[in-house]
Amino acid sequence: MADRNDASESGVNVKVCVRCRPVNEMEKTQRARKVVACRGSRQVLVTQSSGKKCVEKTFTFDHVFGENSTQADLFDTSVRPLVDEVLKGFNCTIFAYGQTGTGKTHTMEGEFTKDGGHDVHAGVIPRAIEHIYANLEQSASEYTVRASFLELYNEELCDLLAPEEAEPKRKSLRLCEDPSRNGVLVQGLNETIVQSSADVYQIIDSARRKRRVAETLMNKQSSRSHTVFTITLHMKEATPDGEDLLKVGKLNLVDLAGSECLARSGGEKVKARKQEAGAINQSLLTLGRVITALVDHMPHVPYRESKLTRLLQDSLGGRTKTCIVATISPASNSVEETLSTLDYAHRAKNIQNRPEVNQRMTKRALIREYNHEIDRLRRELDANRSRNGVYLPQESYAEMQEKMREQEEGLREKEDALTARLEELENARKLFEDKNSELEETSNMLMTVRNELESTISSLVVTQQELEKAHEGIEEREVVIEEQSKAEGQLFKQASVLKIGLEQSVEDIGGLYSKIQRKSQVEQENLSIAEGHKQTLHGI
What we know:
Layout lengths: L11 E2 L1 E6 L4 H5 L6 E4 L3 E8 L2 E8 L2 E3 L5 H17 L3 E8 L5 H5 L1 E3 L5 E5 L1 H16 L3 E11 L2 E4 L14 E5 L4 E5 L4 E3 L2 H14 L2 E2 L7 E2 L2 E13 L5 E12 L6 H4 L5 H25 L11 H5 L9 E8 L6 H14 L3 E2 L7 E2 H24 L7 H146 L1
Parallel strand pairs: 2-6, 2-19, 7-18, 7-19
Antiparallel strand pairs: 1-20, 3-4, 4-5, 8-9, 10-11, 10-14, 10-17, 12-13, 15-16, 17-18, 18-21
């Protein structure tokens, strides 16, 4: 008899925390400034310079871990509660998101050894494993732990736990719908049974050597692929009636490759790095569109546009409890990428999941399910043996038809999306033609204005020359006028002196005339007297 317990009918928001690493040596060498500050345990302040102005932006999250935070702080605060939910029978997902070189792999894996030991730098994965086994051993109940390690490289799915002899081939796995779980299934993915945490560390160490990494200008060990490490727990518990039930919990630990700018990472010079960065950025762009569609409650969510979003479909808007760890750099030369990461993480807070406890099954129900599967496989085998062609039993044929219908629906969705893209392309082409016509008109106007400007410049040159000549004439005239003014001043002084002399001469001449006049009068009187005397003498 199956038993099913659901979470509350209301949705649960995705938990989002932010981790800011310290400034690294490369950023110190480039003299980058710190533009990120963590305020308390929930807020991040980013200062962005725009010209002469500084713009401050504040983001609020479920938790913020500053530069001095430890791996244990992040695990105890944000991860341990989710691992406890896995032990209760929930599916949970934790994934790191951020720009390349911000510490995603360090946060998820950290430092540990393949023999099971780890230190203070151990990341989420080893700490989660230790916590799971500690609780399972303490419960003293029967349990089975299975682990799988999936890599998504250039939109190709690869099994990192595949046998070594299959390694050179790097077989690509198929992603298909799983109607029984209402999710997706990776065909051919190995699930390894692990007995202890040391076994888990050994397979992780083996898988890490297979994962694609490369050195870029921004990160010496840059992850070139996304990885999904999954731990599936099967735990036996007894009911009050004494009947044994099988409880199932699943923990997905996702390490996303970081978005990067080819010009800054140097990937544009290497063809392989350029192809990898293109695939990484495209999948992360689709992830951003999925987040936007979920937050804005759009009727269509583009999960199918990328294998990454199909793998995370149940974690974003599904029945899984999810925590996102957004990693950022505090340096000023990464402020644009930091703001982009914080913006997407802040929007992701509004995504609502509806977590459900996985179905608990009795031993009888589990055996019955296995018997049904064995019967189905036997019928397929009998059908193939009894005929020359390839035949399927009715049940398998119906299942195949259902998958075909789902694929047709997916194809129709893609055709609709393609039609919409073609319409957008046509609109963009028309807009480009309109803008091109406007550009030609503007170019013609610019040419006309340029000719008029050249003509005006020529006229200005001629006018400038004439003006310079006029200035020279004015300067010469000013010199002549100044000399004339000086000469006039001297002449005025000389004329003043002459005027004084003439006035003195006129005065002297007037005195002389008066003297002569008096002399003439005296002489006249003398003549009159003499004439009288003469007459007197004649009379005598």
